[in-house]
From TrEMBL:
<dbReference type="GO" id="GO:0006355">
    <property type="term" value="P:regulation of DNA-templated transcription"/>
</dbReference>
<dbReference type="InterPro" id="IPR010985">
    <property type="entry name" value="Ribbon_hlx_hlx"/>
</dbReference>
<dbReference type="InterPro" id="IPR013321">
    <property type="entry name" value="Arc_rbn_hlx_hlx"/>
</dbReference>
<protein>
    <submittedName>
        <fullName>CopG family transcriptional regulator</fullName>
    </submittedName>
</protein>
<dbReference type="Pfam" id="PF17723">
    <property type="entry name" value="RHH_8"/>
</dbReference>
<dbReference type="InterPro" id="IPR041088">
    <property type="entry name" value="RHH_8"/>
</dbReference>
Length: 138
């Protein structure tokens, strides 16, 4: 079985996250922003999350290795999937970060080449591709 190297698309992406905080916690956040410790609420929340991720970095690293996740951004172009289809191969996509399936990938091509998708983070694909793969997304 040959290995087909998939390209990574270099781009900075982020996802919006909504959280609920109690009024006392929110007041303390606002106080720290007002006192100049953080530029804004988002800055404090990003810093807190990064600090917690740093605390648990070894667990994340071990789990990513054990579950064979690709860490970061993984981009699947139409030509990538067509090459896999020509080789008679199917993908098991496992990404911790962002998995991006190009907009010009048809639902038929996705079904022919993607066996399963497990993404911890975000999956970007057309609505049609997501609908076609719905029973393969875990």
């Amino acid at each position: 079985m040959s290995v087909h190297e998939l390209k990574r698309k270099p781009s900075e992406t982020s996802e919006k996250l909504t959280i609920n905080l109690g009024v006392v916690d929110l007041g303390q956040v606002d106080l720290l922003v007002q006192e100049g410790f953080y530029a804004n609420r988002s800055d404090l929340i990003r810093t807190a999350i990064r600090n917690q991720l740093a605390v648990h970095a070894e667990v994340v690293k071990e789990t990513v290795a054990r579950k064979t996740y690709v860490l970061g951004l993984q981009y699947y172009s139409r030509s990538d999937l067509e090459a896999l289809q020509a080789q008679g191969e199917m993908l098991q996509i496992q990404v911790l970060g962002l998995a991006n399936i190009a907009d010009d990938v048809s639902p038929e091509l996705a079904l022919a080449t993607i066996e399963s998708i497990s993404v911890l983070g975000a999956l970007q694909a057309s609505k049609a591709v997501k609908a076609a793969l719905a029973n393969r997304i875990y």
